[in-house]
Specification:
The complex is a heterodimer of chains A (92) and B (210). With 92 residues, chain A is an all-alpha fold. Chain A has helices at 3-31, 38-57, 65-89. Chain A folds into 2 domains: 1-61; 62-92. The longest helix of chain A is centred in the first third of the chain and has 29 residues, at 3-31. The N and C termini of chain A lie far apart (61 Å). The model of chain A has no long low-confidence stretch (mean pLDDT 96). Helices cover 78% and strands 0% of the residues of chain B. With 210 residues, chain B is mostly helical. In chain B, helix 1 (16-51) runs antiparallel to helix 5 (138-173), helix 4 runs antiparallel to helix 5 and helix 5 (138-173) packs antiparallel against helix 6. The model of chain B has no long low-confidence stretch (mean pLDDT 95). Classes of the chains: A mainly alpha (92), B mainly alpha (210). Chains A and B meet through helix 1, helix 2 and helix 3 of A and helix 1, helix 3 and helix 6 of B.
């Protein structure tokens, strides 16, 4: 396959197919009567979709270290927000 | 196909490479603040669910999963078209880039139209917290507070995104987009973040209690 075609069209279409499959999975699992830990599974599938979009569509996989750090910082501070807030809510 | 375009270098940058690094760094710092902005609302969601889980789930069951799923498909497809469009612009496939940008703007508009129909149904079914609201529980009220605030904020972000894509289309008409592909990259990455926010909202809003 032509290198340019692969980069411009083929890879994004593959990612899109992956996203659609994950969407189908999360919808099906939410309606599956015997499904366990539905909320966690739904969120895990959403995280997988976000990771696909971030790594390939947003090109974080090939980004420089400084850009990857800036991207990770948002998630890192967000986890602190949740950690400290719930440390308080759960110990009232 | 006209071959890979060279980039326009703006003040104060000495080289396209430096401009590109600085632009991506600045963009991602902005996106990190966006993550925290939406993250505050997600914390509200988590806390409401924690306070009155039963009422929260009863409230969440009232959402229309088909509107949500249709819009998820629309938005993920727009992420495909803008990703292909940006790569095409950068590699000099100008015609494909142009078509993909138009497709992205149209898909973005489609999302807003579907959302409009969904809002109409929500209002008819008295799911807007206030005097006529029909779910009298703390969790139910807080779920729908979250729903309205975050979907309106998200739609506002998407509207800004559509404006940015239309700007790229105008740049293309003026024959300047090929050399300003970095502008296309900034818009594209922002668009994907708006998509990611929706991808996370989808199980939080539409799949709870099914």
């Amino acid at each position: 396959m032509d290198r340019e075609f692969r980069h411009i069209v083929f890879v994004p279409v593959l990612v899109w197919i992956g996203l659609m499959v994950l969407l189908g999975l999360s919808l099906a699992y939410a309606y599956w009567p015997a499904g366990l830990a539905k909320f966690a599974v739904g969120l895990a599938i959403a995280a997988a979709k976000a990771a696909l979009i971030g790594a390939i569509f947003m090109q974080l996989r090939k980004a420089s270290a400084i850009v990857q750090l800036a991207a990770a910082s948002g998630v890192a501070w967000l986890s602190l927000l949740f950690l400290f807030s719930f440390a308080e809510f759960l110990t009232r | 196909m006209s071959g890979k375009p060279r980039a326009t270098v703006f003040e104060p940058w000495e080289s396209a490479e430096r401009q590109h690094q600085a632009m991506l760094f600045g963009l991602w710092i902005f996106l990190a603040t966006e993550v925290l902005f939406f993250g505050g609302l997600f914390l509200l969601y988590a806390h409401s669910r924690f306070l009155d889980w039963a009422g929260f789930v009863v409230g969440a069951r009232e959402t229309n999963v088909w509107f949500g799923t249709a819009n998820t498909i629309v938005l993920m497809t727009s992420s495909l078209t803008i990703a292909v469009g940006e790569r095409a612009v950068r590699e000099g496939w100008a015609r494909l880039g142009r078509w993909m940008l138009w497709a992205t703007a149209l898909l973005g508009a489609t999302f807003l139209v579907v959302k409009g129909f969904e809002y109409r149904e929500d209002i008819v079914e008295q799911l807007f917290p206030g005097a006529d609201f029909r779910l009298a529980s703390t969790g139910g009220t807080q779920f729908w507070d979250f729903y309205w605030v975050i979907t309106v904020v998200h739609a506002t972000h998407l509207t800004i995104g559509i404006g940015l894509v239309l700007r790229l289309i105008l740049l293309d008409r003026a024959g300047r987009l090929g050399r300003q592909w970095m502008g296309a990259e900034v818009t594209t990455v922002y668009w994907h973040l708006v998509d990611i926010v929706w991808v996370i909202l989808y199980p939080l809003i539409y799949l709870v209690g099914r």
